[in-house]
Amino acid sequence: MKTGKEHLESLQDGRRVYVGRTLIDDVTAHPAFARAARTISDLYDMKADPANLEAMSYLEDGERHSAYFLRARTREDLAKRSAAHRLTAELSHGLLGRSPDYVASFVTGMAISPEVFKDKGDHIRAYWRHLRDNDVYAAHAIVAPQAARDPAFYERQNLPIPTLRVIDEDDAGVVVHGMKMLATGAILANEIWIGNILPLAPENEAESITTAVPCNAPGVSLWSRKPLAGSSASEFDGPLSWRFDETDAMVLFDHVHIPWERVFVHNDVPLSRELYFRTPAHAYGNHQSNVRFRAKLELLVGVASRIAQSTGADQVPAVREKLGRLASQEALLAGLVDGQIWAAEPCGDGHVTYNRRSMYAAMNWCVEHYSELVDDLRELCGGGPLQFPADHTVLDDAELGPVFHELWHTPQLGAVERMKLHRLAWDLVGSEFAGRHQQYEKFYAGAGFIVRGHNYREAPWQRFHALVDDLLGSYTYPSDASAPQP
C-alpha cells in the first residue's frame, strides 16, 4: 500500500510535461499541478491509514492490496469494491474523474478473463499483478485524435500519420509513433494504458496496438491543456479549481520502443475494442464512474440547498419543489448504483461483475443530465455569484472591508460566509473549472450515441420481442362466421 509521500516521489521521474512551450521539471512543485498532486497524495494516505485499511484494501497472495484490484467472486466483493470507490470519490467530491481506482478497475476486469487476449493472456495477468503489487496509478488514452482517424487520407497525401501506430517491430518488442487522446490524469499518474475504445477500420491493423507505458518512458511526452489551478487568487476564491484540477493532456510517442511483455493486442482490429466488452473491464471501470458521479451530485445538491437557504428562498414552494426534484435525482442514481451490485452477473471462472444494463443506464443518465443539473443550480444562484468583489483582498482592507461586511450580509448569512458559498457555487456553474467539468461529463464516456449504443447492445431484445409476439399470438381477427350480427 503506497503512501502519499511515496507517490509524490514517484512523480519526480524525469517525465516530459509541456504547458505551452514550457517543459515542467517537477509536476509536484509547479503551481499548475502541485495542489492536484497533493490531492492525489491525500488519496493514497487515506487509503493507507490504518483506520481505513479494512475498507480500502483486501488480502491476496499473503499481501494487502488496494481494494480496487479485487477480482470479485461474490456480491460482497463487488460491494467492497464499490465502497472503496465511494470513499475515494468523497475525498474529491467526485471531481477527479480519473482517480487511481479508475483504470485499475479496467485492468482488473481484464485479468478476470485473460483468455480473451489469446496468446497474450499471460501479459495481462502479469500487468495486473504489477499494478496491484506496486499500487500503481495508471491513466489511459484510448481514442485517436479528432479528425485524424483515417490513416489512408494521410498516406494518399504523403503526410505523416498523427494517430499512434506501430511503425516497426523486432525480437524485443514494437516501436510506436504518433499521439493519443485524452490522457486525463496522466500528468499525476505513473503509467498510461493505450488502446482503442472506438471501432477501427479493418485495414488499420497498425493502430490496433494495446499496450501500457510508464509516463517517463523515453520518447513519451504529455502536452497539457491550459491548467486551471492558477485561475484563482486563493482557495477562498476558487475552492474546487484550487485543489481538484486533475489535468487533461495529449500523449505523444516519438519512436517509443515497447517490450513484448507490455503488448496486449497487436494486429487484431476487432479485439482491440472488444476486449473491453468481452471481459468485465468496461463494467468494472464504469461502475467507478457512476459512484464518482454520485459523490459529485451530492455536492451539487448540497450547494443548491445552501444557496436557497442563504436568501430565504428555501421557504418558497417552487424552490422547494426544485430542491425536491434534485434530491430525487440523487436517489435515482443511488438506486442504479446499488442495483449494479445486487443484480450482479457471473463472468469468467467463478467471478462476478456489475450488472451491465444498470451500469450503462446510469452512465447514459449521467451524460444526459449533468448540464440540466448544473442549470438547476445556476437558476437557484441567479445573479448572486456576480455581485461579489473580484477576490478576497477586499475582506481585510482597512477602508473597504467594513463596507463589505456592513452591506453584503443578509438576514440568513454573514457577508464573508455568503461570498465563500457563492465562490463555491461559481466553481460548479461558471468558472473555467466548471466549464471543463461540463465538457468532461458530457463526453468522458464518448459521444452520447456511443453511450446509447452500449445500452442497445446490452438490452434483452429477445425477451422484449417475445412479450410482443406472445401478446399478438393470443388473439386473431374475427372470421365472418363468428362476427357479431347486427
Task: Describe this protein's structure.
The structure is a single chain. 48% of the residues lie in helices and 14% in strands. It has a six-stranded mixed beta sheet, with no helix packed on it. A four-stranded mixed beta sheet has the order 5-8-9-12, covered by helices on one side. Helix 5 runs antiparallel to helix 10 and helix 14 runs parallel beside helix 15.
SSE blueprint:
Elements: H1 4-10, E1 16-19, E2 22-24, H2 34-48, H3 53-56, E3 57-60, E4 63-66, H4 75-92, H5 101-112, H6 121-134, E5 138-141, H7 151-156, E6 165-170, E7 173-180, E8 191-194, E9 210-214, E10 220-224, H8 241-244, E11 249-259, E12 263-265, H9 269-278, H10 281-311, H11 317-342, E13 345-347, E14 351-353, H12 356-381, H13 400-407, H14 415-429, H15 432-443, H16 448-458, H17 461-473
Parallel strand pairs: 1-10, 5-8
Antiparallel strand pairs: 1-2, 3-4, 6-7, 7-11, 8-9, 9-12, 10-11, 13-14
Helix pairs in contact: 1-2, 4-10, 5-6, 5-10, 10-11, 10-12, 10-14, 11-12, 12-14, 12-15, 12-16, 14-15
